[in-house]
Design brief:
Blueprint: E1 2-7, H1 21-34, E2 38-42, H2 44-47, H3 66-77, E3 80-85, H4 94-100, E4 113-118, H5 126-139, E5 148-150, H6 153-156, H7 167-195, H8 200-203
Parallel strand pairs: 1-2, 1-3, 3-4, 4-5
């Protein structure tokens, strides 16, 4: 499976320090690879999208900027998504939401997602994670039930994304995230197999002109 790991950290300096997003993303990518899948990192800090002015679907075919089209193609090619977010004011990061909002639901739909959150404090980003469930459901990549939260992530992972406190802790954190990635793998495999026989766009086509297409009949 091709699993897009979408990160939310756009901060480059503290305080607070250290910047935790790359550590958590590295741990997630290793967990996906350990199950035999190919993680593709989607990092808003590297992509450097502007604040949303014109989403990809607002351009005529072939007219979107090259960087935006490359990101669209990478997201569309994924079989599943792991979305990694910090918590800002009880919400997912603005950089993550800005990235997601540049694209329509048709590239995410009929694929599963998993949510991973983290913080430097004791709550591990859980409030941001629960908010993100509604957003991912709306764009069509329904989140699996198991989420992973990293409280005090700076005490759990080193700069490379490795667990720092010995073999017992490594086993505990691997088991914790394996439950999440197993669910993601199960649903992604089922969805990929079913797409080979049934085109989901036939029964649920993408909106082509206006949001009013989703309205109830008058």
């Amino acid at each position: 499976l091709n699993v897009a790991v979408i990160t939310g950290t756009t901060r480059t300096a503290g305080p607070p320090k250290p910047i935790l997003g790359p550590r958590v993303a590295s741990f997630v990518r290793a967990a996906v690879a350990r199950r035999g899948h190919a993680p593709t990192l989607i990092d808003p800090l590297e992509v450097k999208l502007p604040l949303l002015e014109r989403p990809h679907f607002a351009y005529a075919p072939g007219r979107a900027p090259g960087d935006l089209t490359a990101l669209h193609d990478a997201l569309a090619a994924a079989d599943a998504y792991v979305v990694v977010t910090p918590e800002y004011n009880h919400a997912p990061s603005p950089g993550l939401l800005n990235l997601l909002n540049h694209f329509g639901s048709s590239i995410f739909s009929f694929k599963p997602s998993a949510i991973v959150s983290y913080s430097a404090g004791q709550w591990g980003g859980t409030r941001a994670a629960h908010t993100l469930r509604a957003i991912l459901s709306e764009v069509g990549c329904l989140p699996v039930s198991a989420m992973c939260h990293f409280p005090k992530a700076q005490e759990v992972l080193d700069e490379s994304g490795a667990v720092v406190k010995g073999e017992a802790e490594v086993a505990r954190w691997n088991s914790y995230i394996d439950r999440c990635t197993f669910q993601l793998e199960w649903w992604a495999t089922a969805a990929a197999n079913h797409r080979q026989s049934v085109d989901p766009q036939q029964g649920s086509p993408a909106f082509a002109s206006a949001p009013s297409q989703r309205n109830a009949p008058p």
